[in-house]
Amino acid sequence: MFKVAIVGSGPAGLSAAARAAALGMSHVLLEKTDHLSDTIFKYQKGKHVMATPSNLVLRSDIDFEAGKRETILGIWDEQIAGHKVNVMLHAEVAKIEGKKGAFSIHLRNGEVIKAEAVVLAIGTQGNPNKLRCPGADSPIIQYQLDDPGEYYDEHITVVGSGDAGIENALGLAADPAQRNVVTILNRSADFARAKAANVALLEEAEREGRVIVRRETTPAEVRENELLLDTRDGQEAIRCNRIIARTGSQPPRGFVEAMGIEFSSPEPGAFPKLSPVFETTTPGIHVIGALAGYPLIKHCMNQGYDVIEFLNGNHDLKPADEPILAEKFARLPGNRSVEEWLEVFGRNVLILNDLSTLQLRELLLDSTCHAYEPGEVIFRRNEPGSSMFAIAEGSVAVEVNPADPSVTVPIEQGSIFGEVGLISGRRRGATVRAAEPVVALELSRTAALKLLATSPGAARAVNAISIERQLLQMFGSGLTREDVAPLVASAEVVQARAGQVIVTEGADDKDVFIVRRGSMIVEKQIGDRPVFLSYLPAGSYFGEMAVIDGSTRTATVKAAIKSEVIRLPGQGFLDLLDANPALRERAMKDMAGRRATNAFIESRKDEFSGAVDLYSQTAAFLVDNGIGEATDVLLIDEKLCIGCDNCEKACADSHDGLSRLDREAGRTYAHLHVPTSCRHCEHPHCMADCPPNAIKRGPDGEVFIDETCIGCGNCQRNCPYGVIRMDAKPPKKPSLLQWMLFGSGPGPGEAPYSWRKKKAEEEGVAKAKLAIKCDMCAGIDGGPACVRACPTGAAIRVSPDKFLTFTKLTEDAE
């Protein structure tokens, strides 16, 4: 009978076994393979293993510093032998029975090990998530990469952009002599799961052309030597000889639950419920390491040390991160301990309810705690900010009317706010004040995205809150949270690739949809061709006509770009209308307008069929050129344009001599030209990977780059429309005095555009380049200079919902 049996020899298990050996505790370390630390052993050859977080003290009887995989494994093998740890290799555990003080651990080979306590340090790497697409059983897919140096002259795609995926991609592209074409897919625009250092290395490799990084892209189908992708602009096939799938892993739930251990939720990625000393709901069985939801090596090793100390009777030992958390909580009222504050945050904040104590501690290390007095401003309308706040105690008041601060909407304890800035990158949409004494947790954008990516419960909670607020904002009419609660509970978020049909003309389905992200185009079949009717930006809803009057669908609605829609069951929507007459009246008015448009087309389709066809083609051209995700776009009517270049010159004179647009560049259809100028996308691609967070959104939706730009060029690479360039900052405009005394410049006053541009180019070689793009002349009276300077009115700036509408066609026809 051992005092403790440790299952698994990863960093957590090794540290626990080494501590037990150092204390003289009777122990056994069980490892199913023929070597120690199988997780690290399976890292790719030559991998650099990081030792993060850097400010966390390491507690362990074995050493660990950042270094090569082979070096670390060699040190551990040597030190485990030196500590005389009792190791059993080829000892795979089949099941564990018994109770605290008398456990029986049954091995696959039939042997039974007896122990008073069990420490599970088995990790999750043995249960990788499989790809979910046609062809997922293809032999070109592998879930492990042992030696990147084995592959030559291959087109290799890495699926998954966590640390493992990024490190695999970098390893495969490290040696140019291997001549591999390496692509990595990231389903979102942000690398929420990866360490900042790995993201920086990947971006460097992307800049140098060693790795192709495809954001907002997922595998659609695996074919022979080819991979079909779902991208933000539709489907695309790329050459692919090999797929390295690093899409995460799941805990061995069946094995663990068979011991009577409960998990924090039914979600597949949930972790076991644990006490502060890592004990599960089955007394005597403890869980540490990745299976506890705490995968960083330093944390794992500290847990191994701590759990053995506890089993040895040291109940006063505090976790290694205790001083860091204590410092964070010191600014909060009440003089509570770290454990008390952890209880408050974990219990009171909805999005944190499913986190284990260990996960919560890790999240708090990356977040900021605040205390606010009644009336104190938390943030103001139009301030920049992409963090999200969670209310642990108290409530806040949101000022919904800028002209009257007394008109507020409350947000209660347990909820969140600031999620709009997190999702869209826009400036703060309202001023938020503490309505009473408030304790709140501020999650940085990185911490919030990581939470949503790794905690299904948190993602579900944020999703429900954002849907509820979108419903209240859209439908208004005095609705309350209670009114929309049934719809929120039944709502479903649906991802749609570019071109994917959401509603089909003539179909008999009965759901209502809200465009949550992206945009939709509406088409109607006229004769033998689809005719473009209208454009629906984010925040619009559709599908209510068939629900209200029971008819079939009168038009087809499909995604203009990669989008998200919220699907609401038709009956639930009808119930909401029945209970709210004002909302029904508004819905009927909207429906009447859409029916009038359809009737108008049908009645006069022969009369102006040519105009319908031209307009439909024009609309399709504009959507193909990025108007589908724009909030503000510059268009030039070439029938009116005289080529004077006043638009470029005015732009340059408003922006230190460097024009933000290229009038001649871009594409043209008929007489409509889309020059190279920023579209100010609803969800800007340029913002995805900006290290200093220099790209912001203004209150009117304008996307601009501030003075903190470091010239890394990520935004230029990420922009799909080529509207950002890297350029030297031009010299200051010469003053009259400078010209008179020193001959600076060509003459007094404003220097001509041509001179300033030439001067910037001359000095640009020696100057660091910065990102340059249109900012819609924010802060300049009169609006965009390009439009104001056009003598013929050829240049216009419009939002797509104003331009892409059948109303213009009907007005022209009439």
UniProtKB/TrEMBL annotation:
* Record-linked SMART domains: cNMP
Q: Which Gene Ontology terms cover its molecular function?
A: 4 iron, 4 sulfur cluster binding; metal ion binding
Cross-referenced SUPFAM superfamilies: 4Fe-4S ferredoxins, cAMP-binding domain-like, FAD/NAD(P)-binding domain
Name all 4Fe-4S ferredoxin-type domain ranges.
Answer: 632-664, 669-700, 701-729, 768-801
By its UniProt entry, which PROSITE patterns does this protein fall under? 4FE4S_FER_1, 4FE4S_FER_2, CNMP_BINDING_2, CNMP_BINDING_3
What Gene3D superfamilies does the record tag this protein with? 3.30.70.20, FAD/NAD(P)-binding domain (3.50.50.60), Jelly Rolls (2.60.120.10)
Q: Which UniProt keywords apply?
A: 4Fe-4S, Electron transport, Iron, Iron-sulfur, Metal-binding, Transport
Note the Pfam families from the entry.
Answer: cNMP_binding (PF00027), Fer4_11 (PF13247), Pyr_redox_3 (PF13738)
The Cyclic nucleotide-binding domain sits at 351-452, 475-594
- Protein name per Swiss-Prot or TrEMBL: Cyclic nucleotide-binding domain-containing protein
